[in-house]
User: What shape does this take?
Amino acid sequence: MAPSTHSAMTTANTFPALIAEHARVRGQRPAIREKHLGIWQTLTWQQVHDRVRILAHGLAALGVERGQHVAVIGENRPQLYLSMMAAQTLGAIPIALYQDAVAQEMVYVLQDADVGVVIVEDQEQVDKMLEIREQCPSLRYVVYDDPRGLRHYADAALLSGEALAERGAAHLQAHPDLLALRLAEIDPHDTGAMFYTSGTTGKAKGVVLTSHALIDRARAIEAMEGLTDHEDVLAYLPVAWIGQNMFSYTQLLVTGFTVNHPESPDTVAIDMRDIGPTYYFAPPRVLEGLLTQVTIRMEDAGWTKRRMYDWAMGVARRVGARILDGETVGLLDRVRYVLGDAMIFGPLRNALGMSRVRVAYTAGEAIGPDLFVFYRSIGINLKQLYGSTETAVFVCVQRDGQVRSDTVGPPVAGVEIRVSDTGEVQLKSPGLFKEYYRNSEATRETMTEDGWFRTGDAGYLDQEGHLKIIDRAKDVGRLADGSLFAPKYIENKLKFFSFIKEVVAFGDGKNEVCAFINIDLEAVGNWAERRGMPYAGYTDLAGRDEVYALITDCVEQVNADLARDPRLSGSQVSRFLILHKELDPDDDELTRTRKVRRAFVAQKYALLVDALFAGLDHQYIETEVKFEDGRKGKISADLKIRPARVQATLTAKAA
Assistant: This one.
C-alpha cells in the first residue's frame, strides 16, 4: 500500500473546491463504496467529480438557484451524497431529513425551508412526498434513486435519477460555463448546509452552518488525530444527524478518505466486518446494543468459554485501558493481557468489526462509564467528544493518553469555554452556527450579551482543563433534602446492563428517586428462553415477576455504586416500574436520534409518575400508539410497581 498522506488542502475552502482538489490530487483513489447484492461497488474521486458536475446541471435544469434549499431523504446512499454535493456546487443548501420520519413530520421542514426539489432514496420516500405534496406548495420535483416499485407511477413531479442525469448532460452542453460562474460566486462564509434540531423541547429549528464552520472543525480534528486519505469509514447512521453528516460527509470532503455505505440497515454488522473501518463513530445506544449482543452470546456459550471470558475481562478491566494509554503495567499483568488478547479480545474486536479501528468516537448523549471502560479495556481506542448541531460537532475531544470516563476532554483548537455562575457551559468557536433559520428570537436567546453561545448543559472544567458534563442544565435538580439529582447519570449506569434498554428517572423536588424502565427485548427474551419461560410479546414479558426480579437486581447494583458517591448517594432509585411498551420516536417519546423527550414522557405518563411517588404497588394505564402505516391503536396494562433496596452512603475508610 502506498504511504498515507494528509490532505493538507490549505487553499480549498468550499465544498466544490474540495471535490475538484480531490479529483486532481487523488482522482483514482476510492471515494465512496456501496455494497449492492453482496458486492462492493466503488466510485473514485474523479468519478465523484464528474457525476456531481452532471447532477449539478440537472438540478439547475429543474430551476434550483443559489441560496435555495434542496432536501435529501433516505439511508446512506452514494446518489444522496452526490446530490448534496451537486446542490452545494450550485450554491444551493442541502437539508437531510430523517428517513424513518412519517410523512407529516416532514411537512414542517419542507414548508419552513420552502423546498422545491427533494431527492429521495426509494418508493417509501416517494409515497411520503406524494402524500404531503398539497401541504407543501413550493415542492415541484421529487427525484428518486431506486426505481423498484415505481414503474407504474405516472406523475409529472416524479423524476428518476437517470432522467435527472440526462437532463444534466443536455444542460451542460447548452450552458458549459454555468458551474464556473456559480463557483466564482460561492463564499466560504455562505451557508453550506442546514440541519434541523431534534426538537427535545419543542418544534425543530433550522440550524444554519456556513461552509467555513463545517470545514474548519473537520480540519481541526484531521490535524489532531492525524487523519489521512487512507482511512475507511462506515456510514450507517442517519445522514440527517449532524454527527453522521460531519463524519461521513464533511470529513470525507476535507480529508479525502473512503466512506463505505452498507447494503441495508440489517447488514451493518456484516458490512462492518467486511470493511474493518479505521475511523469509527457510534452513539452510546449503538455501543450498548453491541455489548448486549456480546453478553447474549456469552450466556449461550459453554462453561469453559464463559470462565475464560470472565477471567480475561477481569484482567482487561484492571489493566486494559492503562495499556492502551501507554502506562506502565507489571510484566505478569502484561503477559496475562496478551493471553487474553489472543483468546478473547482479538476475536471479540474482529466479531465487532473493530479490528482495524485506530480512532473511535462516541457522542450524541452521555455514555455510561462502565460501557466506556469496557471498550477501552479490550483495546479499542474509544474516546468521547462533546458538541452539538449548533457547534458543528467538535467542541471538546479527548486526546490520546488523556482519556478518562468522567470527562469529554479539553477544548479542540480554536474553541474557548467558560462556565457561568449558574453552572451552564458557554463557548466560542469557529464552528459556531450562523443563526436559526427564520427565528431571530431563538438565535438571540442562545447567545449571551457578550457573545458567548449558551449550550444548555451543566458542567465544569477540572484542574487539567477537561470539561465534565453533569447533565442538561434544565434536567439537573435537587431532591427535597437538597441533594443533587442528575437523571442522565443514573440512567446511563442502569443502561449498562444488557437487560435494560431505556430509563427515565424522576426525582426533582421529591423525597426519593423513581424510574421508568424499558427492558431490552432481545436480551431479556434470550434470558427467558434459556429458562423455558414462554411469553407472548414485549408487554407480556415486561410484566413477569421473574423479569421484575431480574431488573430489581440491576437497580440495586446501581444503588450500591451510587452509595459510594457522597454527592449522588441520595439519588438511589427507591421504586421503579417496567413500561408496557418501548419508548418510540413515532409516539413522540424519543427524538429521531433516540434521545428521551423527558418533559413529554413525564406529561404523557403523569398517571404512572404519580403512582410511583404515591407508594402504589400497581397502576392501570391505557396508552395510544402509532403504527408505521400511520394508523393508531391502544395498549393497556396493569403495571406493577416495585421497591428497590437503598443503601446508606458509604464513605472511604481512613488510610
User: Anything to note?
Assistant: The chain has three domains: 22-186+234-273, 284-472, 477-643. Residues 303-324 form the longest helix (22 residues). The first strand starts at residue 30 and ends at 36. The mean pLDDT is 92.
